[in-house]
Structure formats: C-alpha cells, structure tokens
Specification:
By secondary structure, the protein is an alpha/beta fold. The chain is 26% helix and 32% strand. It contains six helices and 13 strands. It has helices spanning 34-44, 58-65, 88-91, 114-124, 187-196, 216-233, and strands at 2-7, 27-28, 32-33, 49-54, 74-79, 100-105, 108-110, 128-138, 142-147, 150-156, 159-172, 202-206, 210-212. The strands form four sheets. A seven-stranded mixed sheet has the order 5-4-1-6-11-8-12, with helices on one face. A two-stranded antiparallel ribbon has the order 2-3. Strand 2 and strand 3 form a beta hairpin. 35% of the residues are buried.
C-alpha cells in the first residue's frame, strides 16, 4: 500500500513554532514529532511505500525522515517550488502512484485505521473517499432569522453539528485525469468538480480520536493528552 503525505505547508497558524521548524516536525510529547507518529502508524498498518510532498523547510523533513528505512518503509519525495494546494502536488506524481492510494495531511493526530480507509475506498468504487469526523460548533451569539427586515426566529447561542474532513483521503489515480500538472488544485475544487459531474465522493465516518495539529488549540490539547493517549496512537507500531 502506498501513502502520500502532504507536508509542504508553511504552518502559518502555528507560528512562532513553525518559523524555523516545518509543521509536520513540531513535537508531540517529549520524544516524538507528529510526522514520526504518522509514519510509524502507516508502517504498522501495512503501508510499505510513502511519498512526502515537501516545500517550506522541506530539506529539514528530508534530513529527518531519510529513506524511511527506520520505519520499515520506502520513502521518496516530491518538491513543491510554489504552493499547489491540497491536491495539486499529486498531479506531478501521477505516473509514480498506484491505481489507488492514501493521501493525508502531515499534521493529523488520530487512531484512524488508515488501511481500512484505503480498503473501503477500493470497495466503494468512488473516485474519492473522505474520512469524516463529527464536530460541534458553538455560536457565542444569539442567532436571528430575518425576512423582509422582520425578525421571524431567534435562537440563543445555538450549537451546530457538522461532519468535517479529517485531512485523510482514499484516492483513485484516474480521478486526477484532466487536471494539469504544475497548476494548483485544491481539495475543495476537486470535490465540487466531482459533485458537478454526478460522481460524488464516498464518506468514511470515524468517531475515534482525531486532532488537527494545525489548529493551535488542538496542538496544545495534543501535548496535554499525549502521555495518556500514547498507547492508543502507537499501538502495534
């Protein structure tokens, strides 16, 4: 199984941590970088190959990961000379990728079964599978519904439930057909194009542990919880 890890972002939301350190290498706990945790998880799940799409401070990532042999994997690299969006880096890799593969952000901390995401993607026949997670958003204001300048409904500080993308995807190589290598391609653009074409993505619903380390509050939470969550996150690794 093959995974592509998107590790080229500047990590603007995590500054000043990411001023001199790429976001996938920010520390979690006392001994691990987030990217190390992800690579150990992928290896334990049976992934044997991984491509790292690097850009900002990519030489530091390359020096840290090397050829991946320390995790029992074969790791190669693709370098972004300019930002290409979430899916854009895959276009230049197309000929190096298998028919189906996993794509994920390099700042995800989760106990998601990556191999099962890819298996379910293959079984679904969908062009794209999106791992999703339930989030509750609290609105700190009274919400008004208006019609013709009249207030017709009012809800005091409501909570809204959403399913959000976890930044982990199963993807079929053919889904990239028709897009131009070297041009930016965002996840949002790809999903909207698939919906417009009547070829919707498949949703992989997950209710375990997940944090987006790109969010400062989640990064702080990850460090606070890692000691008690370590056996869950690194089981079998």
């Amino acid at each position: 199984m093959h995974a592509v890890i998107l590790a080229g972002g500047k990590g603007v939301r995590l500054r000043p941590y990411t001023t001199a350190l790429p976001k996938p290498l920010v520390p979690i706990g006392d001994q691990h970088a987030i990217l190390e945790i992800v690579l150990r998880q992928l290896s334990a799940a049976g992934f044997t190959r991984c491509t790292l799409a690097i850009g900002h401070l990519g030489e530091i990532i390359r020096a840290y990961v090397g050829d991946g042999s320390q995790w029992g994997m074969t790791v190669d690299y693709a370098t972004e000379d300019s930002p290409l969006g979430t899916m854009g880096p895959l276009l230049g890799l197309r000929d190096r990728l298998p028919e189906t593969f996993l794509v994920m952000n390099g700042d995800v901390l989760t106990d998601l079964d990556y191999a099962d995401v890819l298996r379910r993607h293959r079984d679904s026949g969908a062009p794209l599978t999106i791992a999703t997670y339930a989030r509750k958003v609290h609105i700190d204001f009274g919400v008004l519904t208006t019609d013709a300048s009249k207030v017709v409904a009012f809800t005091e500080k409501p909570s809204m439930d959403y399913r959000v993308s976890m930044g982990v995807y199963g993807l079929s190589r053919a889904t990239l057909d028709g897009y131009t290598p070297g041009l930016p391609l965002g996840f949002d653009e790809l999903v909207l194009d698939l919906l417009k074409a009547g070829n919707p993505p498949h949703a992989y619903e997950f209710d375990g542990y997940w944090l987006d380390i790109g969010r400062p509050d989640d990064y702080d939470r990850a460090n606070a919880e890692f000691t008690t969550r370590k056996s869950l996150l690194l089981k079998g690794a």
